[in-house]
Amino acid sequence: MKKSDVLRIAIPVLLAVILLFMLIGSGMFVWDRTAERVGHGILWHGVRYVSVTGYCYEGRTIGRTADGWKINEVREDPSHTFVVLRSFLDRNLLVREDYEIPASGTVGLVWWQSKNTRDAELCRAVGEILARAEPDFLFETEEVFAVNERQKMEEVYVAYGDCPVPTVYAGWLGQIDGVWRLTLGIPAEWPEKDGKKQIPCFTIPPEYVPIFDR
User: C-alpha angle 160/163/165, rounded to 5°?
Assistant: First the structure.
């Protein structure tokens, strides 16, 4: 066989093998379908995963439930302590039931402005603000997430210590009437008056403003 004939056969085979490995690596082919859905969570490899609120970036598919839901890894968490359960329309962040999510300590990860960041200066600022935050301003608004001339707020979640996913709700951070503030309390418990929510806020000290306003 001529060298040119060998190349004509070898190159397509090599490309096919590379493509196959890429598809396997991306989770296109998943043979593990042993997980069972339990409520909003799953039972998988003898471990129960339960629903939790938080933000993360999804990675490849690493399993499926018996009824076809995908189990996607969390890119920040190679240990698979957290996973994402996904169907065509729904998405649930899950965590191992035996994992105790840190609720205090040093902030190591922040979700803000629709992205996760480990920026040391930002994490330090958020941690220090949470430690000293007390209500000093009452904000009246129909919806805190609305963006208009008066307000521009972004939801904040944090992760303490080495937790790989921000799951601890920290409030809404942004500008109200041109002043940087952090909302306090839980949205479900904010009282209403005349159709507007009464939201206690903490005014961000001036030394932290440049960290957020960049």
Answer: 100
Cα separation, 32 vs 47, whole angstroms: 15
**Distance from C-alpha of 13 to C-alpha of 21, rounded to nearest angstrom:** 12
Q: If you average pLDDT over residues 27-53, what whole number do you get?
A: 87
Residue 122, phi-psi category: left (phi > 0), alpha (psi -120 to 50), beta (remainder):
alpha
| E strand map for 14-69 | 36-38, 41-44, 47-51, 58-64
For the stretch 21-33, pLDDT in tens is: 443 444 456 678 8
List of residues 6+ apart from 78 with CB closer than 8 A: none
Q: What share of the chain is helix, strand, coil (3-state, %, to 5)?
A: 20, 40, 40
Tally of residues, the chain: 214
- Per DSSP, the residues of 92-148 read EEEEETT-----SS-EEEEEETTEEE--HHHHHHHHHHHHH----EEEEES-TT--S
Q: How many CB atoms sit inside 10 A of residue 51's CB?
A: 13
Under DSSP, the state recorded for 60 is E
**153 bridge partner residues:** 174
d(C-alpha 84, C-alpha 78), whole Å: 13
As a whole number of Å, the end-to-end CA separation of the chain is 65
For the chain, the farthest-separated pair of C-alpha atoms sits apart, in whole angstroms, at 87
pLDDT, tens digit, 9 for 90 and up, residues 68-77: 899 999 999 9
Are 107 and 168 in contact by the 8 Å Cβ rule? The answer is no
Query: Residue 76 is encoded by which pair of tokens?
Result: 């920040």
